[in-house]
Amino acid sequence: MSICPKNRSSRARRDSRRANWKMSVPNMSVCSKCGALVMPHRVCKACGAYNKKEIIKVDAQ
Predict the structure, then answer these.
(1) What is the pLDDT along the chain (61 residues), one digit of tens a residue?
(2) How many CA atoms lie within 13 A of 6 on its CB side?
């Protein structure tokens, strides 16, 4: 069985229910080694460090 509404929803009621489906900006933190913006709990793409330790080698370009 599928949903069978008793009464029709108006466009205003339908659209106001959908109004809260907006995307949020991801939280960014500052790398403790180089100062670049990184997502929290991830290796820095600029210097390859996590928690002030070098995790991966990054080529200088």
Answers:
(1) 678 889 998 999 989 988 888 888 889 999 999 999 999 999 999 999 999 889 888 886 5
(2) 0
Contact by Cβ (8 Å): 55, 48: yes
Domain boundaries, given as residue ranges, for the chain = 24-61
Helices (H), the chain: 11-18
Contact yes or no for 61/45 (Cβ under 8 A): no
- Strand pairing of 53-54 and 49-50? antiparallel
